[in-house]
Amino acid sequence: MKSLAKFWRYHFRNDTGAPMDYDLGARIAIRSMPWKIASGDLNYDTVVTHDTQFTAGETVAAGSSRIASVVDNSSGVYQGVNGTFEITHDQGGASGVCSLFIEISDNDGNWPSASDDFDIEDLQRVSLLPIANTGEDKSRSVNFKFFL
Fold first, then answer.
1. Closest C-alpha to 13, from 56, 52, 42, 43
2. Domain limits at 135?
3. What pTM did the predictor assign?
4. Residue 99's closest CA among 77, 135, 123, 73?
5. Does residue 6 have a pLDDT over 70?
6. 67 close to 20: Cβ distance less than 8 angstroms
7. What would the DSSP string read from start to end of 24-65?
8. How many domains does the chain have?
9. Hey, how many other C-beta atoms are within 10 angstroms of the C-beta on 135?
10. Residue 102: inside a domain, yes or no?
11. 2, part of any domain
């Protein structure tokens, strides 16, 4: 079985048709637990919460994205991740989806998202979370698995 790339990170995209405002209660939570098969045994590491740099005073506009912190897989050489993707949207009228993608790099410097003609759809989608709020600050989550 192949391993995950040496360097990788998550991309979140808000396609709900409404902005997400941190100060009004919007949140993005991406948690994953890497795993690998070694000597015939399935081994899990600890759960990691991925930082999307979404903090006080910030808004994720409709149609825009956030990039989580880089994961260095050079020492763990993990083969996959199991995770949870959770969104709390602050707009009662938000309707659509939030998408989670994975982006890989060979050296933590060559990222597809750094190119001039980058399209997030060129990345591998790992999760899709439908959002159909009937009230503010409702959260939804979905589990995901990713491996090569």
1. 52
2. 7-147
3. 0.92
4. 123
5. yes
6. no
7. GT-EEEEEEEEEEEETTEEEE---EEEP----TT-EE-TT-E
8. 1
9. 7
10. yes
11. no
What is the helix, strand, coil percentage profile of the chain, to 5?
A: 5, 50, 40
Q: What token pair was written down for 9?
A: 């990170």
1 domain-assigned: no
Residue 121 DSSP SS3 = helix
CA distance 128 to 141: 10
Dihedral sign (CA 77, 80, 83, 87)? positive
Q: 126: left (phi > 0), else alpha (psi -120 to 50), else beta?
A: alpha
Q: How many CB atoms lie within 10 A of CB 56?
A: 6
Cα–Cα distance measured from residue 95 to residue 106, given in angstroms and rounded to the nearest whole number: 36
For residue range 99-128, what is the model confidence (pLDDT) as tens digits? Answer: 999 999 989 989 999 999 999 999 999 999
Residue 141 domain flag: yes
Compute the distance between CA of residue 128 and CA of residue 60 in angstroms, rounded to an integer.
17
